[in-house]
Amino acid sequence: MVKNRILIAGLLLVLFLGRTIAQDYSFRQPLFWKSYYNPAYTGIERGVSFNLGYQREFVKLPAKFESQIFSVDYSLYSEKRNNGVGGVGLFVTNDLQGDGRYRVNTVGSSFSVRVPMGRSSFVQFGLRPSFYFVSVNPDRFILGDQLDPYGGVVLPRSPLLSSGIPDKINLFDLNWGFYWRNYFDNARNSFFSNAVLDLGFAVDHLPQHDQSFLKGSNSADRSVPLPTKYVGMIDYGMPVWVPDPDYPLFMTTYALWEQQGEFKNLQLGTNFEIDRVLAGFSVRTQQFEISNLSSMIFNLGLFPDVQNNLRISYSLDVPVYNGLMNRNFSHEITISYLIPQGRQQYRKGYLAGYRKNRFGHYTCPVPGKQYKNYRNR
What we know:
Number of helices: 2
Shape: globular
CATH topology: Porin
Low-confidence stretches: 1-22, 187-192, 343-377
Radius of gyration: 23 Å
Strand content: over 45%
CATH superfamily: monomeric porin ompg
Strand order of the largest sheet: 1-2-3-4-5-8-9-10-11-12-13-14-15-17
CATH architecture: Beta Barrel
Distance between the termini: 64 Å
Helix content: under 10%
CATH class: Mainly Beta
């Protein structure tokens, strides 16, 4: 037990002393968290959307690494007035590492503006200022200066951690991004024409703030600025099989790329939706400064309500080492709820020229023509 605690404390001390780069969240289901990766996505989906997420990392480790995430987006864009406003959003996180030895809380607010690009596409630009509240619990660390070769742990707290090093730091952050959406409407009466392409790019941590706990100390310079992170994401969704006009099989293929200092992340995946069920698979490769980590991710989602406003999704992350699967799994659960705008929440049946979006609602490919060509079947 003491050996495990020393190992965990040593790993977390690296973070505490600012010797590594703190990485952001990396979701197994990025399609549910687009507004986190890119503030320009805020307000794209018509209505008010709520997301609640829970992550449990590497369950076989002797300490708990878990996160809770909550977000809400509200669309403000008016097609009648063409007001140029995209939407506003709120993002809150609680990240615990090593059974509470290291904690990061984040609160951010995003807003976006929209620029129409013709009949079937538009661009949004977004900005998200946020605050990070980082803290450590010195009483839960066991360092070498607390140990005696014969007596084990002889000091309740490390003298190093009692020498005036702060146990809390607060940081301001700023993220910027743009998002482009295009609806393919070549044959408006064909369901197969209702494809959607999303493309986004974001820049995070524009002020490269110092994340070290040792700033201002008499020791050697321990300043560790948090490097800027670059995020690119593309996804393409379309119906691929329509056995029944009311229940098409919808496929979304996506790619997510992130780079922050020495850290790189690439995730490629595909999701399939039909009626009230989602199934998906993706592969992910993460490259760190001293190691690489690959994994296979399996997604399963259910939509309990008739309008598909409520979505519950689960992801299983299976690490892969040297071509072999490892049982040190990670789990992620996402609960999403959409309150749509307008009459779409009451519409059922096939809408000619419309597509079924990721929240289970038919949306028109052409902005400004939301209720034309409507018919029931």
